[in-house]
Design brief:
3 domains, Helicase, Ruva Protein, domain 3, mainly alpha, minus-end-directed microtubule motor activity, AAA_lid_11, Dynein_C, 54% helix
Length: 330
Amino acid sequence: GGWLLLQNCHLGLGFLNELMDTITTKESMSEDFRTWITTEVHPEFPINLLQSSIKFTNEPPQGVKAGLKRTYSAVTQDLLEVSKMPQWKPLLYAVAFLHTTVQERRKFGPLGWNIPYEFNQADFTASVQFIQNHLNDVAVKHGVNWSCVRYMLGEVQYGGRVTDDLDKALLNTYTRVWFGEHMFSEKFCFYKDYVIPRGNTVEDYLQYIEQLPVIDTPKVFGLHPNADITYQTNLADETFSTIVSIQPKDSSTRGGETREAVVQRLADEMLEKLPPDYNPHEVKAQLQKMGAIQPINIFLRQEIDRMQHVISRVRTTLTDLKLAIDGKLL
C-alpha cells in the first residue's frame, strides 16, 4: 500500500515498458498503492503509460506579475526579516525579478535564449541563500561586494546552467545593470513602471505586484516589440498543431468527411484504376506466338511476373484497409 517514486524516467525509457507490463499483468494490487513518475517531455515516452496516468505539470506562470506573485506567495515574513541589513529586501525583490525575467525569455524561443534552459525554483532559492549569507558576512564599512554578487548570480547560480557564450553575456548584462548601489535610489527601475517597492511585510509586496500589468511588453525583458509577434505566431501554430494531433478519429475534416471516409474514398478510387490480374495462360500463349525462347520475350515474362506481384500486393493492401475501417478485418 505504499508509494513508489521513479524520478527522471526520460533517462530510462526501456524500464517503463517493463513497468507497464508489470502493472497490467499483476493479478492483485493494493488500492492504496501509487506509482509516482517524474519525467521531462520525450517523444519516445510510452504512450500507453502516459494515457493511463493522471498527468500533473508544474510550469512557471506567464508574465512578470504572475511570476512575482508566485514567488512572493512562497516568501514568508520570517524570510523577509531574516536580515537587518537595509539592502536585504530590495535585493530579494531584485533576485525575484531576475528569476521571472530569465524564465519569461524562454517563451520567445531563440530570440530569448539561444538554448532553452530549465531555470527553476531551486535557482532562486540558492540565489536568495547566497545573498543572505553574503549580507551576514559583509562589513558595515565596506558594504556589499557587488562584483561578487554579480559573479555569483551571472556565472554560478543562474549562469551555471548557461552554456552559450552570448547567453552568458546577456545574463551578465542583467546582473551588471540591475545590481549595484544605484538600485537603492528612488530613480532606479527595471523598466518604466517596474520599480523596487518599499515595504515591511509580504502583503505590501503582494499589493504592489497586483498593480503590475497583466500583459508585459517585450521591452521589459530587453527585447524588441516585434518579438511578441513572433511569440504569438509560434503559440498559435503550436496550439493548432496540438488540436489537430488530438483530434478524435470520427471528427470532421474538409467537406464534412471524416478521416476514415477520406481514406476509404481514396482506396476505392485506386482499386478502380488498378488493372486486372494478368492471365498466365494468355500471357504464355502470346509469348509462344512471339517466340518464347527469344531473350527479349524471356525478359518480358520476368517483368510481367514482377508487375503481377505488385498489383496483387496493392489490391490486397487496399482491400484489407477498407475492411479494417469497417471493422471487418479478421
